Amino acid sequence: MCQKLCSYLILIVCLLNLEPLYAQTYDVNSPYSRIGIGDIMPTQFAVNRSLGGITAGYRSPVNINYNNPASYSAIKLTTFEIAVAANGLWLNDGDTTQRFGSGSISYLAFAFPMAKFWGASVGLIPYSSNSYDVRQTVAGPNGLGSDIEYRFVGEGQLYQFYIGNGFSYKGFSAGFNIAYLFGTLRKETLTFFPDLQTAFPSRIVESRLAKDFIWNAGLQYTQRLNKELFLTFGLSANTSIDTKFERDLRWERLTSISSRIDTLKQEAVEAGVIKLPAKWNLGVTLTKTASYKMGLDVGYEQWSQYEAFGESSENLVDALRIGFGISFRPQGRSFGNMWKSADYNLGFYYSTNHYELNGNRLPQFALTGGIGIPIKKINSRINLALEIGQRGSLNDGLFRETFMNATFGFTLNDRWFVKRRFE
Questions:
Q1: DSSP assignment, residue 196?
Q2: How far apart are CA 326 and CA 194, in angstroms?
Q3: Are the C-beta atoms of 252 and 205 separated by less than 8 Å?
Q4: Is residue 54 part of a domain?
Q5: What is the percent of the chain with per-residue pLDDT over 70, rounded to a whole number?
Q6: What are the C-alpha distances in Å from 247 to residues 160, 181, 303?
Q7: Does residue 149 lie in a domain region?
Q8: pLDDT per residue over 108-133, tens digit each?
Q9: C-alpha dihedral sign at 194, 197, 198, 200
């Protein structure tokens, strides 16, 4: 077992070394990530992403489903999952289109069967991300004789390290995740007076550091319809969570975009709370053993509850999401033909989204697809997922984002902690 564990660790190191390679291409510039705590990152793993993001009723003995921890009780083999993601974004303001992109490690997780009725998981996944660089020019007040140029820049990411357990009794399953939320989000607002040579530009810098626990829980019920056909109903949810953050805020006077003359004002580091929204996701999945799987999810997120250091945001509203996915395997136990034993996945989702600007909702929708390719001689799969969709609107000077996200995942299954019968 130690030799196998060393092999896994070597693989992790190799994949982690890919992150700087991806990050050196170019960064995503998503203006909407300026709102709230940024864009909420997908927490589904590659298989679920290719199935329209369905998770509520999804159960698998060989894949990890973080979003509904009740599914951990279905894990039959020690499972290791890791993935890298490559993201492309085309940003359109109605006149021009700009292309951006990025890449990073997407998730890293283990799951273990602790007993016949009990499964556990531990892992690291992203939570949200700030990534934008937006410029705006407005007319100055009467008497100033100059326009005012603003530049809004954001960067940073929040992560969650989670530990979860799932338990089953007959057809019922229940589970929970406890995660530690950490990371820093940094926002800058720069002000320039291009026509006034005697006016210095200024910069306001705000950093928010997360350092608290969050959670989610789930329920599932599986009804056997016949020998190979199963119907699973699922529900996952969390209440609104008051999460501890620290905020650092300062005002600076600049000589140029990168040179600071002095700090005009700096507030002491402030401890505060950001209220994250209540969420629930309800779904059903129909599974035929080693043949096909199809599911439907409906989710709701109450982003109108969001508050940061006592202030709410008028640009965040409640969001509804609907997803559907279907997976097909031509021949479940075909050991001689890799493509016949591969999983072919297809799905879609539609979300009203939690952003609202100038009275405009910014819906998001996408088609998803993927393939799970078995690896000969070892009980593992390469999982590829592709998502192509749009978000936003061109009304009232807003932006429309067309995105293409690819996830390259690796799943390894093995038997650990099995007592040998013979020496």
A1: -
A2: 56
A3: yes
A4: yes
A5: 86
A6: 19, 15, 21
A7: yes
A8: 999 999 999 999 999 999 999 998 98
A9: positive
Question: What are 188-241's pLDDT values in tens digits?
Answer: 998 888 777 777 788 889 999 999 999 999 999 999 999 889 999 999 999 999
- Which runs of E-coded beta strand occur in 139-228? 148-169, 172-192, 202-224
Euclidean distance between CA atoms 260 and 70, whole angstroms:
52
Number of domains, the chain: 1
pLDDT at 417 over 60: no
Q: Is 55 exposed, middle or buried (0-12, 13-18, 19+ CB in 10 A)?
A: buried
Token representation of residue 70: 């009740």
- List beta partners, residue 125: 160
The CATH number of residue 190's host domain is 2.40.160.60
In the numeric block, which tokens belong to residue 309? 């250091």
- pLDDT tens sequence across 284-315: 999 998 889 999 999 999 999 999 999 999 89
CB 149 within 8 A of CB 191: yes
Distance CA 353, CA 339 (A): 37
Is 181 among the domain residues?
Answer: yes
Structure tokens that stand for 55 in this block: 């998770």
Q: How many other CB atoms are found less than 10 A from the CB of residue 374?
A: 20
Q: What is the pLDDT of residues 157-186, one digit of tens each?
A: 999 999 999 999 999 999 999 999 999 999
Q: Which residue has the tokens 């939690």?
A: 354
Instruction: Decide: 199 and 193 in contact? Cβ < 8 Å.
Output: yes
For the chain, how many residues are written?
A: 423
Q: What is the dihedral of CA 321, 61, 294, 407, to 10 degrees?
A: 60
Residues near 418 by beta carbon (within 8 Å), at least 6 away in sequence:
none
**Mean pLDDT for the chain overall:** 87
Range of 94's domain? 2-414
Quick check: helix, strand or coil at residue 263?
strand
Q: Is 422 inside any structural domain?
A: no
